């Protein structure tokens, strides 16, 4: 199954993910650097305090008792040369640790981390056998700072992502609004079959790539509309021009058929008449399609009894059905009334019956039924013939489209019949559908809304 996601969504996800990675990396670096900077400052402060006290104790008149109440040395304590506590800040956890002269180190005691720095000063005062000056400070504060930064990251990153995703999607949606207009216009042209529609472009539109695309598509639609108009006009003009010579050929062929003396002459005259009738039918259909395309075909709607109309259509196909040994059965209740143009609707149903005869079995059966609901009337024409392959079902409504070699001139097929039927039903505001299976027959269903 193909996964669907709009371009707007994919772009939003892409740059939101990228921003998430960038923000996470930056904040992680900031947190790491901040923590390391805090540790460095603590180490520097401890070392400076211990060094200052050690330097002061070098002076003969300076007593270590003078630093006991000095706030500047709050993290420093003084021990005798034998390790006995004398004055200063007493930290129980570190009091038993061995002394190391001029070594800045980190020690972990009972899960707590400390920064420790010791300096030894030999000699007086007193009988202490020298002095140890120890600086010690817990790293818990820095750890608390790191946890605070981490907590801040957990709060800030989702907030940034949400704001970025919402803002980015809104901006992308606005940027792609011309694309939505293109899609809407294309759908309207397809559903309404109206090539006059164009992609709206405002005067103050920014002349970017989407603007250029909109202009190009409108120009292309102008060209397509012009070509289709020319094609329709050519079809109409050519059909009109062909009517007179075809009528003359048909009349001359019928005259030759009447005066023919030999079987060969009659056969040749009959071929002329048959082919002239086929071309006449083709021209008539082309003229009808041209009038419908150009909205010049009048639709004279009136109340029509379907049971009578179907009987007339069947009667017109009796000889053809007899040639193919085809039985036509009608199941239409009397007084099944529809509002329609009787000649056009009869032409559509007759064409469907003709198709059923051409491509039905020998012997075969064609069944015509009609049902009504409160909203619509449904007319079905079903045969038990050769059927239509699935890949052709959407194409049979195209003009001059024939499924295969079977649907050829041997049956007088021009490929315009179903196209004409669809145009007639569409002109009535209705719809026609087809269901078919190869070798199982075909069913056409006409829907006429009330």
Task: Walk me through the topology.
Layout: H1 7-56, E1 76-80, E2 85-88, H2 92-95, E3 104-109, E4 112-121, E5 131-138, H3 140-175, H4 177-192, H5 209-259, H6 263-293, E6 302-305, H7 306-316, H8 318-323, E7 326-331, E8 337-340, H9 342-358, E9 364-372, E10 376-383, H10 417-427, E11 431-437, E12 441-449
Parallel strand pairs: 7-9
Antiparallel strand pairs: 1-2, 1-5, 3-4, 4-5, 6-8, 9-10, 10-12, 11-12
Helix pairs in contact: 1-3, 5-6, 6-10, 7-9, 9-10
- Overall pLDDT metric: 80
Q: The biggest beta sheet, please?
A: 5 strands, antiparallel
CATH architecture of one domain: 2-Layer Sandwich
Helix count, per DSSP? 10
Shape: rod-shaped
What oligomeric assembly is this protein in?
single chain
Strand order of the largest sheet: 2-1-5-4-3
* Span of the ends, CA to CA: 40 Å
The helical percent reads 40-55%
**CATH C-level label of one domain:** Alpha Beta
- How many whole angstroms does the radius of gyration measure? 49 Å
Instruction: State the CATH topology of one domain.
Output: Beta-Lactamase
Brief overview:
By secondary structure, this protein is of the alpha+beta class. It is 52% helix and 18% strand.
Detailed description of the structure:
This protein has 450 residues and is α+β, with helices and mostly antiparallel strands. Among the domains are: 7-163, Beta-Lactamase (2-Layer Sandwich); 302-449, Heat Shock Protein 90 (2-Layer Sandwich), CATH 3.30.565. Helix content is 52%, strand content 18%. The strands form three sheets. A five-stranded antiparallel sheet has the order 2-1-5-4-3. A five-stranded mixed sheet has the order 7-9-10-12-11. Strands 6-8 form a two-stranded antiparallel ribbon. Helix 1 runs antiparallel to helix 3 and helix 7 (306-316) packs across helix 9. The longest helix is centred in the middle third of the chain and has 51 residues, at 209-259. The protein is rod-shaped. The model is unreliable at 405-409 (pLDDT under 50).
């Amino acid at each position: 199954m193909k996964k669907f996601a709009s371009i707007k969504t994919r772009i939003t996800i892409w740059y939101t993910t990228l921003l998430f990675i960038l923000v996470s990396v930056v904040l992680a670096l900031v947190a790491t650097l901040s923590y390391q900077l805090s540790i460095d400052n603590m180490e520097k402060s401890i070392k400076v305090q211990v060094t200052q006290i050690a330097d002061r104790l070098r002076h003969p008149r300076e007593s270590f008792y003078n630093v006991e109440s000095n706030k500047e040395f709050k993290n420093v304590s003084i021990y005798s040369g034998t390790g006995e506590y004398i004055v200063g800040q007493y930290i129980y956890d570190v009091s038993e640790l061995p002394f190391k002269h001029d070594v800045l180190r980190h020690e972990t005691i009972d899960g707590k981390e400390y920064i420790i720095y010791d300096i030894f000063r030999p000699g007086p005062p007193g009988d202490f056998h020298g002095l140890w000056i120890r600086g010690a400070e817990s790293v818990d504060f820095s750890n608390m700072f790191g946890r605070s930064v981490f907590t801040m990251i957990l709060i800030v990153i989702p907030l940034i992502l949400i704001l970025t995703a919402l803002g980015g999607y809104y901006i992308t949606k606005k940027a792609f609004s011309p694309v939505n207009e293109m899609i809407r216009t294309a759908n309207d042209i397809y559903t309404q079959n109206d090539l006059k529609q164009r992609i709206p472009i405002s005067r103050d539109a920014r002349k970017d790539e989407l603007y250029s695309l909109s202009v190009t598509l409108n120009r292309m639609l102008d060209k397509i509309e012009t070509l289709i108009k020319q094609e329709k006009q050519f079809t109409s003009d050519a059909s009109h021009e062909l009517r007179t010579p075809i009528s003359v050929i048909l009349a001359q062929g019928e005259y030759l058929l009447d005066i023919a003396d030999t079987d060969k002459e009659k056969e040749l005259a009959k071929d002329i008449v048959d082919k002239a009738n086929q071309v006449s039918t083709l021209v008539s259909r082309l003229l009808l399609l041209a009038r419908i395309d150009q909205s010049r075909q009048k639709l004279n709607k009136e109340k029509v009894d379907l049971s009578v109309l179907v009987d007339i259509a069947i009667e017109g196909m009796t000889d053809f059905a007899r040639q193919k040994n085809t039985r036509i059965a009608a199941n239409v209740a009397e007084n099944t009334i529809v509002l329609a143009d009787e000649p056009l609707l009869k032409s559509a149903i007759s064409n469907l019956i003709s198709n059923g005869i051409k491509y039905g079995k020998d012997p075969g059966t064609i069944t015509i039924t009609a049902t009504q609901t409160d909203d619509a009337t449904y007319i079905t024409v079903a045969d038990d013939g050769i059927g239509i392959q699935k890949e052709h079902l959407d194409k049979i409504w195209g003009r001059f489209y024939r499924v295969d070699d079977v649907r050829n001139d041997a049956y007088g097929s021009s490929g315009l019949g179903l196209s004409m039927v669809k145009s007639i039903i569409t002109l009535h505001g209705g719809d026609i559908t087809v269901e078919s299976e190869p070798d199982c027959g075909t069913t056409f269903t006409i829907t006429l809304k009330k």
